[in-house]
Amino acid sequence: MRILRRLLAALVLLLVLVFLGLRWTLRGSLAQLDGQAMLPGLTAPVQIERDAQGVPTIRAQNELDLSRTLGFVHAQDRFFQMDLLRRNAAGELAELFGPAALPRDRANRLHRFRARAAAILGSTLESVERDLVRAYTEGVNAGLAALRVRPWEYLLLRTAPRPWTAEDTLLVGYAMHFDLHGDLTKVRSKELVRTTFGADLAEFLDPNFTPDDAALDDSTQPLRPIPGPQVVDLRTLSNATAALGPLEPPDLPGSNNFAVSGKRTAHGGGMVAGDMHLSLGLPCIWYRASLALPDRTLTGVTLPGVNVLIAGSNGRIAWAFTNSHTLTSREVPLEIDPASAQRYRGADGNFVAMREANEQILVQGAPTETLRVQETEFGPVVGTRGGRTFARDWLAHRPAQMNLALLQLGAAASVAEALPIAHRAGVPPQNLLVVDAAGDAAWTIIGRTDISPPVIRRDSLWTGNNRVVGGDGFVALGDGGQAMPYRAAQIRDALQALPNPVRPADLLGVALDDRALFLERWHQLMLATLTPAACAEKPARAELRKFVEQWGGRASVDSVGYLAVRTFRAGVDRRLLQSIHARLKMADNEYDPRQLRVETALWSVLQARPEHWLPKNFPTWDSLLLAAADDFLSDAVTAGVPLREMTWGRRNVVRIRHPIARALPDFFGRWLNAPAQPLPGDGWMPRVQTPTFGASQRMVVAPGREAEGIFHLPGGSSGHPLSPYYLAGYADWARGKATPFLPGPPQHRLELR
């Protein structure tokens, strides 16, 4: 027994030592917060202060020192995130993750963005921007080298981080092109409707203009007429099925931003609010910072990997973005020379040879793969469909589309100064709202386009990824997947209803608005469907009707009725358009029915109820509606829970995870991930919230009055789970609790020399 106890004690001691050693090793990759450190290349000492949430304030004497220090801080807190962004854009993920990442690498490597970045850096980038990028790059590598142990993710992956290069900073910009404008599913899906059923049905199912639009120029158009039986007849259309999946609103990269001019504030200055909607993960994509120079202080969010303040305030102007979803690319069908598969017909009508490049894709644990890239004057060859070869013509391929002019926005003193900077900035085209301390407020498209972007000034401004302008402006900018207008309209109406003077808390209230105005007419239709006779036929319907009556009109976590109405609408959509969607899915498996903005068409048909639009497997329109109402009862049976437990919060459980957590046992996953919790909101209202998608930040700020501003972020500055700042801010973000825009009093001070 004595020997057994000694062995047990020795085992416990060994386990404790292993745990302490592991913890000591992991803590070696935490950022340095206090004291002094050397940063070669600085022209003067720089101070880094961090508040109780870990938000850094960097105080530097010039822009080069500021850029160098920002690189140092980014690398210490977020190098792995930066690495993933550059690798995604360059098609180099397989070098870290092995063959599983090859499909994405092959698709992204076709664009040869690393080669494009190198060419831009050596030619078209302005010398000042080039110097700032190089200073940032040296700061990144110094910050990485200053860690006692390489970032913890590389310990798990059993590899070493690759040093940062100046090209990598441009690659992070290209990563945002992929994220915001890289998906052509919407454009392809609508074009498939057009080629399969004709233009009348395509424009009816997915209209660019509706009576409900919330454009800033107030442009609308009447409803299109319902196509007749000669266009589509659901009584005769085949009921062939295809795997469509649930018709949930797609998680498209988007955002809200809205602003008021000085005429609506007590202080006479403009005020802007913005919340960028993206996939949620840890660390969160944005990095809060305050960047202090002798003549100005910039506060807001940066993107690790880039030496630019993305959105925020410089004390004189403040700005916020939403994704414009304008048409930035097209797939060009190529006419291949019958005599040679390596030749295509060019724009001048003659056959020309394709340019070729061999790209080497490094693969962890497997041989290097050689990818042959074929390039044309229209762009790289991206594949074949239906026997045709396509090239992709994309704004992102143009050298002028990538620059760091956004740096100049941080020095602008007025809206008038900011607008020309916005129009030459090399960023993915976005809706920019910018206000200044003098009270001016304007909308425009930021990013280079083929036109001179319009500018709109109003006392209230709003965008929600919807169509913002009509007329020639819309024709020129195009539709790359713009959202239905209901979220933007709800923002517009809430904004205009605010009494003057507007305060920051008022704009935060608009951002957190979870009223289900979009579904109110569906709520009324569901009540009309659950008649006394229908409820008598199936007693469970009577209980369902009570929950629908008490739905509350909000996407609140405790509402059964909200989920019931939402399920009812999806059920009607699925049944009414099933045969159309199935025909399209069979024609092209990449077709996504969620991409079509069918709401106005759906409601128009339900009001008119033409015979040729009633699917042949339903004898009456009432039977179709009742079957959709019963979907919620079936869902409850499938889930094995009573109706009272079928709440929206049970469905809308937000899970924000670290990308590495998926490959680890659950214990480590819980350590790396944010606590799962139900949250209010949905995709059709200002408070956009799904289990993995939502506001990647929220802010409200008036330039010159930053101390009154509000800020939310669903995670902290550090990407290290042992840091106290890993989840800093998450709880306030989830609760929608107002927190200060400016960093608080310093808790840590680090001086770089």
Molecular structure report:
- By secondary structure, the protein is an alpha+beta fold.
- It has 24 helices and 27 strands.
- Strands 1-27-2-3-6-7-8-9-17-18-19 form an eleven-stranded mixed sheet, with helices on one face.
- Strand 18 (441-446) and strand 19 (455-456) form a beta hairpin.
- The longest helix is centred in the N-terminal third of the chain and has 28 residues, at 63-90.
- It is globular.
- The N and C termini lie far apart (61 Å).
- Residues 14-20 have low confidence and may be disordered.
Strand % is 15-25%
- Amino- and carboxy-terminal Cα gap: 61 Å
Q: What is the strand arrangement across the widest sheet?
A: 1-27-2-3-6-7-8-9-17-18-19
Roughly how much helix do the residues carry, as a percent range? Answer: 25-40%
Unreliable spans: 14-20
Task: Report mean pLDDT, rounded to a whole number.
Answer: 94
Rg over C-alpha atoms, rounded to the nearest angstrom? 27 Å
Per DSSP E runs of 2 or more residues, the count of β-strands stands at 27
- Gross morphology: globular
Strand count, sense and closure of the main sheet?
11 strands, mixed
SS summary, helix count? 24
Structural class estimated from helices and strands: alpha+beta
